[in-house]
Amino acid sequence: MMQFSRLLAKIAAAGRPTAGQGVAPAHPANMPAESQPPRTLGGLRSGVIGVLVISVAIVVATAPWPVQSGATAAVPRQVARPSVRVAIFGLVVTQGAAPVSGCRVQAFSSRKPHAAVGPAALTNAAGMFALGTGLRVGKYSLKATKGRTTVRVSVVITRSAAWYRVLHFKLPHALPGPGARRTPDGKGGVAVFGQVMKPDGAAPFAHVYVGAKLSGRPDRPRFFVGAGATNRMGLFALRERVGPGRYWIIADLASGHLSTIEAVSLVHLLVTASSRRVVVLRLRAGGGSVTGRVADGAGRPVARASVMLETSKQNFPGWQTDTDANGRYSLRYVPFGTYIGDAGGPNGIRDSGPRVIVVGKRPVRMDFRIRR
User: What is the pTM of this model?
Assistant: First the structure.
């Protein structure tokens, strides 16, 4: 930079008149012959060279130079893209399409074939599984192993991928799993997978029980297909395939039995003979809550009293929980809507009458009085 500055100074000084010279330059015709400039293109060349030197100096001066130690420079802000995590579901069957239970399924990175990605999953009685971790963008190899038989499937996850993938494994030498129950109609059914999310829809809901209750069948009013608790990604796979019919897919905070229902989400599923063989659902927990206290006529708390929220949904048992030693109860993650609340004591005596409860964003408090 110093050399270019000096060069610019010399060019500027060459164009200024020296002391003793007039302001107007002498005409070449009035100058002595030995003092007249040669009639060549040298003057033009010198002007062109000067312009080029000045242009190069300007370009060099305005070019970005490395920042020295101690100096600061504006760094372009990097926009962080959300990480992609794709849920992996799958079915493992024999060559005859019989489900294989107890099959170990594990994901491995293609760059490191021996490096496992997340925990392994075991297939249930219906040959279904859900991995305990989502796969990020990249290439993977999923391995299904049953005894000495192993089958691999390659998976490529891109940023534009859907939120789930369903894989199919066929083990040529595996035996079908014992204990797989048949669907209510005695035929093959639909495999149901899914994910349960928190009320905000951004975080998975782990450790909730998911099941399917058959509705509209008076001969089987308590048919219930469970899936166990959701994993840390909120994923589940029903332990049995469901046949044609109408079902309520219930995500429950309780143990998944009909005696106590603390459902966080409900989805109606209609299965017909022409339905797809695989159904993937996404359930979101409700954002409402109902709390209160159950007391007797004298105002004393009633322990182990049953509190129920009933809906107008066909053949759905509603929400039900029990009070603690202080007579208090709490129902969380209740979907928004209108319900009928009722309470009963451990001796079977009910409340004076049902009450209409409207569940919204604000917590609802509802107290009950029963006779002992």
Answer: 0.68
DSSP state of 104: E
Which domains, and CATH codes, for the chain?
Answer: 87-171 (2.60.40.1120), 191-284 (2.60.40.1120), 288-369 (2.60.40.1120)
Which structure tokens are listed for 372? Answer: 């002992």
Spatial separation of the C-alpha atoms in residues 208 and 223, rounded to whole Å: 19
Contact 102, 123 (CB under 8 A): yes
The three state secondary structure string of 234-268 is CEEECCCCECCEEEEEEEECCCCCCCCCCEEEEEE
Provide the pLDDT for residue 256. 47
Give the H or E element holding residue 48.
Answer: helix 42-62
* Integer Cα distance of 325 and 304 in angstroms: 7
pLDDT of residue 216: 59
- The whole-angstrom separation of Cα 310 and Cα 338 is 9
Strand bridging mode 364-365 / 121-122 = unpaired
Which tens digit of pLDDT belongs to each residue from 32-61? 555 455 554 455 455 545 545 445 444 444
Q: What is the pLDDT of residue 275?
A: 84
Q: In degrees, to the nearest 5, what angle opens at C-alpha 267 toward C-alphas 233 and 355? A: 115
- What letter does residue 30 receive in the DSSP assignment? G
Contact (CB, 8 A) for 141 and 153: yes
